[in-house]
Amino acid sequence: MSVPVRKLQAFFGQAWQENVRMANYTTARVGGTVLGLVPVNTLEELRKAASFLWSESVPFKLIGSGSNILVSDKGYAGVILLNRCHNIKIHSQEEPPTIYAESGANLSNIARMTALRGLTGMEWAGSIPGSVGGAIYGNAGAFGSDVSQCLLTVQILTPEQGEVTLTADQMAFSYRSSILKRDKQPAVILSALFKAQHSTREAAWKLLSDYAEKRRQTQPIGNSTGSTFKNPPGDYAGRLIEAVGLKGYKAEHAQFSPLHANFIINDGQSSAQEYLSLIRLAQRRVKEQFGIELELEIELLGDFNDEH
């Protein structure tokens, strides 16, 4: 497919960046160059950018923090929209209290802001590094809660219908998934409205702190995509990977974390291909020993040398 690079340069102007390495924009710190990268700072900029790219049939991916994606070493033959739309408004006097957030807002910031206002219900998100849009797309969760339990509505943009408001039910959430992720239909998440409950600042902050401490003790720090695989029904991906002898296993510069086997850590020099090799190794071993297909929680972006 021929990409109208000159049209893109003319439309985006000084915001247009070429030959950008995605290793600088992902939490795994891997990924090759992309056709172009454009920061979007307001929802209006996001609407215009997405609409233009759809009209020109140019593939694009909207990213926030860059977690939960593994970008190929070969890069991505499309445009990355870097979501910097991060406004948050908390309506603590409503019943129930609500939180409005743009899709580029950091989920952990919302958790802290609501706790400081004596609101509860979002503390589980305090240690999740992702953006609101990515969290909704993948129904992020922790400590027995997830987006589906807190979301009231989400505003999305589609090429066919324009702007649409969906309820949590219409998002058809399932474990670490939503209708947008499953159907892979072209859509951009603009903003969302979450619900909370009244509590006290002390109680909410204690719960937030307890969750953060538990995460520190059980999950590794460092360059990582986050949880690599979804937990199979009635079991845990980390337990299965450990059971087949891969916890702490290192190949080249990527390693299954010795602290939690469902995390693959980059020592700073890993490639995306090394990540993928470990992913496929875990899937093969778990399938052979337990007959369980480990399903990715992360998304692959770009072309890989993949024998899977």
Describe the overall structure:
By secondary structure, the chain is an alpha+beta fold. The protein has three domains: about 10-85, 2-Layer Sandwich (Uridine Diphospho-n-acetylenolpyruvylglucosamine Reductase, domain 2); about 90-220, Uridine Diphospho-n-acetylenolpyruvylglucosamine Reductase, domain 3 (2-Layer Sandwich); about 225-300, Alpha-Beta Complex (Uridine Diphospho-n-acetylenolpyruvylglucosamine Reductase, domain 1), CATH 3.90.78. The chain has eight helices and 19 strands. The radius of gyration is 20 Å and the shape is globular. The chain starts with a helix and ends in a 7-residue tail after the last strand. The mean pLDDT is about 95.
Main CATH class of the largest domain? Alpha Beta
Secondary-structure-derived class? alpha+beta
Number of helical elements:
8
The order of strands across the largest sheet is 6-7-13-11-12
| Beta-strand content estimate | 25-35%
Radius of gyration: 20 Å
Domain count: 3
